[in-house]
Amino acid sequence: MDRAVCERLDRDCPLAPFRERFALPEGLLYFDGNSLGALPKSTAADIGRVVREEWGRGLVESWLDADWFFLARQTGDAIAPLIGASAGEVVCADSTSVNLFKLAASLLRHSEGRRTVVTERGNFPTDVYILEGLIDLSDGKFDLVLAEPETIVGAIDGDTALVLLSHVNFRTGAMHDMAAITAHCTAHGVPAIWDLSHSAGAVPLALNRWGVEYAVGCTYKFLNGGPGAPAYVYMAQDVIAAYEPVVTGWFSHANQFGFEDRYRSTAGIEKCLVGTPPILSLRAVMHGIACFDGVDLDDVVQKSRTLSELLIDLADERLAHAGFVLASPREPARRGSQVSFRHPEAYAVSKALRAAGVVADFRSPDILRFGIAPLYMRYVDVWDAVDALARIMASGGWMAHSTDAPEAVT
Q1: Does 21 have pLDDT greater than 80?
Q2: Residue 305: C-alpha distances to residues 300, 383, 410 (Å)
Q3: Which of 26, 58, 113, 276 could form a disulfide with 62 if both were Cys (CB 3.0 to 4.6 A apart)?
Q4: pLDDT interval class at 17 (50, 70, 90)
Q5: Which among 124, 127, 123, 125 has a CA at the least distance from the CA of 152?
Q6: In whole angstroms, what is the distance from residue 108 CA to residue 135 CA?
């Protein structure tokens, strides 16, 4: 393998033309799309137009004339095909954390005497914090079980009130068998919520086919919706009617402009809405999703795996002697769209990489993480990144950062 092979792979890649949809800085190798996706070229121009025309001139009339009222649902319907859902099962609103709270709080109201709430040790912290807060509110009615990833299925039984899992682990990229775990939960009558934040837009998802009933996810990673973009909620069509929202507001009221004194829930997926949706952010999300127009999702998955395999193979060949240990699963079917390595100086190495124009990131305590965003990443990017990393380790360039204190955002 040499760089010429990577160049040929890029020329033959069916996704190569879609890179042009993104505004990528010249000379930068970006491996952090699993933290913040790249900017679609169409986003800035449209947001400017929305501000000038729809807000500046249309003013309040744009709630109807520009479909602002329906944008949260329209955005959800646009997301649905990317996660294997149907129209009317997804709505875009609030943050992932708030959506987790809304779903979990409602489901725990109907726990029928079951006591355990199951998640995995090493899950994204905010997911666990949300569960801890709900358990505190229950005055001891529930117990939190932090199961090891490999023992999740064994921890789910007739006493389980709720399961909350991230499909892809944010540190290691390890990916659960969603279909199998969902089937196990269903067999035990246990509702399960899946966090798709590190999945949607990069790995296979078939929520309807796999029998998934509840899920949440963010839009600012592989969906390229922009920093702090609103998240989304998925509910299967056959559970929407029974869902009783706990966090309620006027955008989920059955008669929104009747201004009634008491709450009555609407009937559809809009019952997951609460307050006024963030229109500018939702428009940005729509442009991120539009980057997938004309894309075969099978090509996305295949390229994700091929890029990841290339990165792993090159690291085995050129970096193993420098103390890098693969933290992600080697088996492609068990790995999300990222490759993580353990190294005792992972933070210093990540800083040295950025100084060399390669943006990967650090996750405590010792993870160097490379996100794989197939729509805009090239095979030569992987080659050049490993080449830069090999030079840094050979020259000791990372040592200049060995005493740096970790920053809030890496």
Answers
A1: yes
A2: 9, 15, 24
A3: 58
A4: very high
A5: 123
A6: 10
- Output the CA angle 96-99-104, nearest 5 degrees: 120
Single-letter code of the amino acid located at 241? A
Distance in angstroms (rounded) separating the CA atoms of residues 101 and 109: 12
Cα gap 288→22, rounded to integer Å: 10
End-to-end CA separation in angstroms for the chain: 31
Q: How far is CA 279 from CA 67, 85, 159, 282, 289, in A?
A: 10, 23, 42, 5, 15
Residue 27, classed as helix, strand or coil, is coil
Query: pLDDT tens digits, residue range 308-325?
Result: 999 999 999 999 899 999
Burial of 403 (0-12, 13-18, 19+ CB in 10 A): exposed
- β-strand 116-120 against 160-166: which pairing, if any? parallel
Give ∠ CA 376-278-126 in degrees, rounded to 5: 70
Tokens of 392: 């840094």
- The pLDDT value recorded for residue 112 is 84
Report CA Rg, the chain: 22
Q: Residue 393: count other Cβ atoms within 10 Å of its Cβ.
A: 20
Tell me the HSE value of 98 on the side-chain side, using a 13 A CA sphere.
Answer: 14
Q: What is the pLDDT of residues 236-289, one digit of tens each?
A: 999 999 999 999 999 999 999 999 999 999 999 999 999 999 999 999 999 999
Please give the Cα distance from 90 to 79 (Å, whole number): 7
Residue with tokens 């800035």: 44
**Phi then psi dihedrals of residue 258, to 5 deg:** -80, -15
Do residues 161 and 106 make contact, with C-beta atoms less than 8 angstroms apart?
A: no
Mean pLDDT, the chain, integer: 96
Helix (H) or strand (E) segment spanning residue 116? strand 116-120
Active site residues: 124, 195, 220-221, 369
Question: What is d(CA 287, CA 225) in angstroms, rounded to the nearest whole number?
Answer: 7
CA 205 – CA 222 distance, rounded (Å): 13
Structure tokens at 209: 């086919």
Run of H or E including 98: helix 96-108
Alpha-helix residue ranges (DSSP H) falling in 262-378: 279-290, 297-318, 346-355
